[in-house]
């Protein structure tokens, strides 16, 4: 049991008073970066995966003495608040971060819904926000001036790497199918526009309702249309059914790209998953030549050191958020200011000059991410899942055309 | 286009018979017990998981897992009758009460499957050689033909049971008049429990067949099968055990042939238009069982 005497109390109070001005001075010198994390709700898992990436960057920068700002090194402080996956709460908390917490710059919450809510506040209060996971095209078409998507490409651009690979390999006629839901439909619309831009002919574009169980006729329509590139943008359950039914009906396409074919659940279905093209941004064979932040090995090591007890391994959300934090740091150093317009200009000046763990960075005036391609991977016999496109990160040649079902061992 | 249309027609019949199987067990339970089994789809998905784990843990092929799943589900159904269904008859409005109870059960089963099996889509590791057969220009996967064969056998056995055996005739008598059958000394409770067990056993087998033909399943798809089941039995005639077959084929044909000319979304819409048209013209469905109550 501790006993506080009058003397020790006075001594303690004196010490506290002496140290207080110093602490306040140090805190004032830190660069304060605000963001929200979802402790609960639909976005909790992804949000928490992401914030771990930001925390790795904060730790890394502070170990280096901080960011260069105003001719001196300044430590970084991450000011985290909870948003409970609630867009109304996001708006309130971002206002609080700016008005009461006096943060210098903001990182967006997870996802398009929450980011849109946060952007209305940051725009109104004239603060700059770096986005790491909002893929909705509509967000960037609303005229927000003070946002930039550092690592997340919009939905409409996500199919680009897959179709560029198909085009480079000789694909000419594309069949695009999607379940009738917003994200897959957005991907399908994007795929159609990209294919046409590449000079490919879209011979079939068709949606089907959620809950569809039999795809055999849809597959035959794609074959009858003469497609040599099959590009379904649905979720993995439907994709598993499609690929199984392709084998059952001997439906072959020289190039089949399935958005979720790189997931462990899809690969688990066995031999039928072989040769299907997909994409991902975090895989042992994807190693960009980074010129900002940690490379893959350094990132994994930092993650294991900082989060030894977390039951989840880093995923693509962690990588996107880490990359966005790295780019935010570069933007701050380049702008040497916290004024939103100067930060935006710096973000534009850095466009096409940075490559982070998630890939090369390039943005347009709307803040839309133009690069950060999800490299194309293919499951190949004996090699497993390997990166085949783009050439900067490819580690294996694509198997093209995909062997017909009746010609496989 | 003609080739695709022919393929669509054949596919419509095959898929329709699978849809019919989904509806048959639902209809047996509704016809005999007046229980609106909203958890039917979840039991089908559980049947698929049963085959999946029988394959993973015991090395049983889905076909060999069928009797096992039928037995286990039948016993569960028999017990569940006394736990849930029997007390519904004490309610003022047993049909509405059963709808609510079974809807609750479907939510519980969906949540339990999510907890136990996680959200990932699974697929049975099952293939046949040759994988398909050609009939002129029409291609038919052997898995589908096998499923079709099993569906026909099961429906045939059920029809034989209902129309040629004494317990089956007693079941049909319950559908016609549940009060009168007690006068002749039939143990209504025991027979009802058997029916619920039979319905769930059939749902379990249906789960295995649909997971062979529509290859992926997850805890979230139970409601899809429940919806298909209800469409089929409303088309065929509520409560008529074999009416579901006609309803299934009709819906399958409408959906698959429409898909030749339109997108899947429009095809499903046309399927529902057909359903509404049948209800408007023949409110009791094609086999008009409601008149027999």
From TrEMBL, chain A:
GO biological process, alphabetically ordered: amino acid transport
Coiled coil: none
Designated name of the protein: Amino acid ABC transporter substrate-binding protein
Domain Leucine-binding protein, chain residue ranges per copy: 30-380
Organism domain of life: Bacteria
Recorded family membership: Belongs to the leucine-binding protein family.
Keywords annotated in UniProt: Amino-acid transport, Signal, Transport
Keyword set includes Signal: yes
Signal peptide feature range: 1-27
Organism of derivation: Stappia taiwanensis
From TrEMBL, chain B:
Top-level taxonomic group: Bacteria
Pfam families: BPD_transp_2 (PF02653)
GO biological process: amino acid transport
Major site of localization recorded for this protein: membrane
Transmembrane portions of the chain: 12-33, 40-58, 64-85, 97-117, 137-163, 191-214, 226-253, 260-281
Topology class, membrane: Multi-pass membrane protein
GO MF entries: transmembrane transporter activity
Keywords: Amino-acid transport, Cell membrane, Membrane, Transmembrane, Transmembrane helix, Transport
Protein location: Cell membrane
Recorded GO CC terms: plasma membrane
UniProt xrefs under PANTHER family: AMINO ACID ABC TRANSPORTER PERMEASE PROTEIN, BRANCHED-CHAIN AMINO ACID TRANSPORT SYSTEM PERMEASE PROTEIN LIVH
Family: Belongs to the binding-protein-dependent transport system permease family. LivHM subfamily.
Name of the featured protein: Branched-chain amino acid ABC transporter permease
């Amino acid at each position: 049991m501790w006993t506080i005497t009058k003397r020790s109390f006075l001594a303690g109070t004196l010490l506290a008073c002496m140290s207080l001005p110093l602490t306040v001075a140090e805190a004032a010198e830190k660069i304060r970066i605000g963001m929200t994390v979802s402790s609960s709700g639909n976005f909790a898992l992804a949000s928490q995966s992401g914030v771990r990436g930001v925390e790795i960057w904060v730790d890394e920068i502070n170990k280096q003495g901080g960011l260069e700002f105003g001719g001196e090194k300044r430590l970084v402080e991450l000011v985290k608040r909870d948003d409970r996956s609630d867009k109304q709460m996001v708006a309130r908390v971002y206002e609080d971060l700016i008005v009461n917490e006096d943060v210098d710059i903001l990182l967006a919450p997870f996802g398009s819904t929450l980011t849109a809510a946060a952007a209305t506040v940051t725009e109104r209060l004239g603060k700059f926000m770096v986005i790491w996971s909002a893929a909705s095209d509509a967000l960037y078409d609303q005229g927000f001036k003070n946002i930039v998507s550092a690592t997340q490409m919009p939905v409409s651009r996500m199919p680009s790497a897959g179709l560029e690979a198909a085009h480079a390999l000789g694909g000419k006629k594309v069949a695009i199918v999607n379940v009738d839901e917003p994200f897959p439909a957005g991907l399908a619309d994007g795929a159609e526009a990209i294919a046409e831009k590449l000079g490919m002919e879209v011979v079939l574009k068709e949606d089907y309702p959620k809950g569809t169980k039999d795809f055999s006729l849809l597959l035959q329509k794609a074959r009858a249309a003469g497609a040599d590139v099959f590009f379904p943008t649905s979720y993995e359950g439907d994709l598993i059914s499609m690929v199984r039914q392709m084998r059952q009906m001997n439906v072959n396409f020289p190039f089949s790209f399935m958005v979720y074919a790189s997931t462990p659940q899809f690969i688990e279905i066995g031999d039928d998953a072989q040769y299907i093209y997909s994409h991902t941004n975090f895989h042992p064979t994807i190693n960009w030549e980074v010129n900002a932040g940690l490379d893959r090995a350094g990132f994994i090591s930092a993650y294991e050191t900082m989060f030894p007890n977390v039951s989840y391994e880093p995923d693509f959300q962690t990588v996107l958020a880490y990359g966005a934090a790295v780019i935010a740091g570069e933007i701050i150093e380049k702008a040497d200011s916290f004024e939103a317009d100067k930060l935006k200009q710096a973000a534009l000046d850095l466009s096409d000059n940075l490559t982070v763990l998630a890939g090369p960075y390039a943005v347009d005036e709307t803040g839309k991410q133009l690069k950060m391609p999800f490299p194309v991977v293919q499951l190949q016999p004996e090699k497993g899942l390997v990166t085949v496109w783009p050439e900067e990160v490819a580690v294996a040649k694509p198997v093209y055309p995909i062997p017909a079902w009746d010609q496989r061992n | 286009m003609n080739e695709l249309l022919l393929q669509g027609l054949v596919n419509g019949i095959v898929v329709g018979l699978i849809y019919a199987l989904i509806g048959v067990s639902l209809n047996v339970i509704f016809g005999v017990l007046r229980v609106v089994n909203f958890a039917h789809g979840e039991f089908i998905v559980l049947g698929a998981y049963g085959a999946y784990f029988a394959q993973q843990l015991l090395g049983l092929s889905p076909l060999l897992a069928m009797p096992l799943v039928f037995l286990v589900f039948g016993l569960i159904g028999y017990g569940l009758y006394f736990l849930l269904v029997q007390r519904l008859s004490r309610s003022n409005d047993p049909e509405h009460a059963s709808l609510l109870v079974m809807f609750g059960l479907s939510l519980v089963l969906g949540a339990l499957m999510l907890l136990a099996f996680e959200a990932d889509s699974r697929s049975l590791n099952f293939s046949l050689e040759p994988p398909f057969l050609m009939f002129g220009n029409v291609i038919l996967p052997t898995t589908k033909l096998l499923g079709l064969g099993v569906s026909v056998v099961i429906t045939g056995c059920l029809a034989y049971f209902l129309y040629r055996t004494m317990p089956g005739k007693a079941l049909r008598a319950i559908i016609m008049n549940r009060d009168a059958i007690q006068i002749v000394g039939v143990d209504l409770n025991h027979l009802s429990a058997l029916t619920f067990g039979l319905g769930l056993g059939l749902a379990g087998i249906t789960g295995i067949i649909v997971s062979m033909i529509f290859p992926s399943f997850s805890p979230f798809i139970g409601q899809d099968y429940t919806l298909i089941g209800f469409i089929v039995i409303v088309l065929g005639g509520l409560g008529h055990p074999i009416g579901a077959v006609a309803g299934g084929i009709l819906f399958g044909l409408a959906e698959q042939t429409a898909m030749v000319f339109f997108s899947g979304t429009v095809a499903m819409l046309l399927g529902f238009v057909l359903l509404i048209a049948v209800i408007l013209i023949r409110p009791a469905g094609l086999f008009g069982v409601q008149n027999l109550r």
